[in-house]
Amino acid sequence: MAGVRRRPARRRGRLARTVGWLAALLVVAVGAIVLVLNRSQVLPVAQVRCAATSEGTSWYLTPEQADNAALIAAISVQRGLQARAATIGIATAMQESKLVNVTHGDRDSLGLFQQRPSQGWGTAAEVVDPVHATNAFYDALVKVPGYETMAITAAAQAVQRSAFPEAYAQHEAQARAWASALTGWSPAAVTCHLRAPDAAGSVEGFGARVQRDLGALPVTPGTPDATGLPVTVTTAAGADDVRSRQAWSVAQWSVAVARAEQVTTVAVADQEWSRTRGTWQRSGSTVPVGEVRVTLAAR
Q: Which of the residues 69, 102, 184, 250 could staple to 292 if both were Cys, CB 3.0 to 4.6 A apart?
C-alpha cells in the first residue's frame, strides 16, 4: 500500500502566513469603510424614511411615498375639503399604487390612482401627472352623496369601482394618521429622517411647488446666510386657530417634501424640524401665527 505523502512544513508555513496577511488586510479594509461611512454620516437605507405618528403608533412611508401623500393632502386643503377627503385619497392611492406614481398597471391603468384613460380619466400623460390625477379623483369624490360620513372603503370604492372593494379598508389607520397631520390637525406628527442634501435648494422652485400643491400662498425669500436659503410661507387671513392649523399643514407638507426640495429646517409656532435631527423639538424662538419658516440647502 502506498504511503501518504505529507506536505513539507515549509510550504505549510508559507500558506499560513499568506492566510494571516489576507485576514489582516480584510480587517483593515472593513475598518476603513466603517470610518468613511461614519465621517460622511451616511444613513442606512432602513433609516431613510418618513413617519406620521398617531396615538403612539408611527406609520412609515418612503420619502417618495410621503411626497405623494403630501400632494394629495395639500390639494384637498387647497380645494377646501374636509380632512376626511384627504384620508380617502391617501388610502386609495396606497391601495392602487402604494403611493408611487407608476407608469403601468392593469390594462391601461396608470398613475397614483391607477386611472384608466379609456374610462374618461384623462389622457395617458394626464393621469401620470399627480396634480391632474389627484384633482380628477376629488372631482369624482365630491359627487358621491354623503362621502363625508361614509366608510372610507365605501367612499373609495364609489370612485374607483374596484374588483376588490374591501381592499381600501386595510389602509384606513395609516391614511388617517397622515391626512390628520398633513391637513394640520395633528401638529408635530410628521417626521423624516433623511441623508444630507445632495444639491442646492431653489427658492423659485420651492415657491412654485407651494403654489402648485397648496395654492396662492405668499412665499417670501429671506437673506441667504451660512445656514442656507431662508423662505417664509404665509397662510391666508383668518382666525388665529385656523391660521395655526394651516401653518402646521404647510410645515408638515414641507417636511414631507424635504428630500425633493432640499429642505434643511422647518420652523412653526415654537417648534422646529431639522434634517440633521429628523424630529421636531422646541425652538428658542416663536414664529408668528400663520407663518412657516423654511430653510433650503445652500450648496
A: 250
Distances (CA, A) of 174 to 1, 132, 170: 76, 24, 9
Query: In sequence order, what E strands does the chain have?
Result: 49-54, 57-61, 190-193, 219-221, 229-234, 263-268, 271-274, 280-282, 291-296
Give the C-alpha separation, 84 to 90, whole Å.
10
Q: Distances in Å between the alpha carbon of 23 and those of 9, 30, 33, 96, 221?
A: 21, 11, 16, 50, 56
List pLDDT tens digits, range 85-133.
999 999 999 999 999 998 876 778 899 999 989 888 989 999 999 999 9
Q: What pTM was estimated for this model as a whole?
A: 0.83
Q: Which residue has the cell 411615498?
A: 65
Q: Which of 191, 195, 206 is nearest to 261 (CA)?
A: 206
- Going by the DSSP 8-state scheme, the letter that residue 62 receives in this structure is -
- Core vs surface per residue 70-93: b (16+ CB within 10 A) or e: bbbbbbbbbeebebbbbbbbbbbb
Q: How far is CA 155 from CA 72, 126, 148, 168, 299, in A?
A: 16, 23, 8, 9, 45
pLDDT (0 to 100) of residue 14: 58
Percentage of the chain lying above the pLDDT 70 cut? 84
Residue with cell 418612503: 62
